[in-house]
Amino acid sequence: MQLLEERILKDGIVKPGNVLKVDSFLNHQMDIEFINELGKEFKRRFADAPITKILTIEASGIGIACLVAQYFHVPVVFAKKAQSLNLDGEMFTSKVESFTHKKVYDVILSKKFLGPEDHVLLIDDFLANGCALMGLIDIVNKSRATLEGAGIVIEKGFQEGGKKIRDMGVRLESLAIVDSMTDDSLTFRPNN
């Protein structure tokens, strides 16, 4: 998606360790009009899928998922990274290792929000090694819902996550795929 690639080149910052900071517009400070355009693009790419729920993981995916969900007219459900007092009833759980935080989380989703009748679209900001998506796929499988696909804003194509997810047969749509990243340059893979 040309608009996204241009914004990454303009405002993204490459940090050591293959970290791409896009916090000025995507996942700390959010440019709502811009993310709204991303939501329209995900709707265009998944227009043929009978989506009933958008599923993401806290925290960075929530805002993006909300703007995507408005085009599908469906609720957003998000897996939480910590147990809290207001979580009750039976839960789906999965383990997820965060690339950025170098930490393993038990992600939790109440069973009352996802079931066999649902058709799920996963949405997240980044795909690096695929752990977050694998955890969400595990939750969808445990719920017996139908996984319609995954929408990622930025995929790091030089890491294994995208290949791993595609090899599982999951329909994966990434709006921008970074092919290579150095301190002073980024290259993108041609992408529909």
TrEMBL record:
SUPFAM superfamilies: PRTase-like
Reactions the enzyme catalyzes: XMP + diphosphate = xanthine + 5-phospho-alpha-D-ribose 1-diphosphate
Subcellular location: Cytoplasm
Pathway given in the UniProt record: Purine metabolism; XMP biosynthesis via salvage pathway; XMP from xanthine: step 1/1
Enzyme superclass (EC): transferase
GO molecular function: xanthine phosphoribosyltransferase activity
CDD domains in UniProt: PRTases_typeI
EC assignment: 2.4.2.22
Gene Ontology CC terms: cytoplasm
Chain positions recorded as xanthine binding sites: L20, N27, K156
InterPro entries found in the cross-reference section: PRTase-like, PRTase_dom, Pur/Pyrimidine_PRTase, Xanthine_PRibTrfase
Annotated Gene3D superfamilies: 3.40.50.2020
Residue positions binding 5-phospho-alpha-D-ribose 1-diphosphate: A128, N129, G130, C131, A132
Keywords for the protein's UniProt record, in alphabetical order: Cytoplasm, Glycosyltransferase, Purine salvage, Transferase
Cytoplasm in keyword set: yes
NCBIfam families registered for this protein in UniProt: PRK09219.1, XPRTase
HAMAP family referenced in this protein's UniProt entry, alphabetically: XPRTase
Family of the protein in this entry: Belongs to the purine/pyrimidine phosphoribosyltransferase family. Xpt subfamily.
The protein's role, per its UniProt record: Converts the preformed base xanthine, a product of nucleic acid breakdown, to xanthosine 5'-monophosphate (XMP), so it can be reused for RNA or DNA synthesis.
Record text on subunit structure and interactions: Homodimer.
Name of this chain's protein: Xanthine phosphoribosyltransferase
Species of the source: Blautia faecicola
Gene: xpt
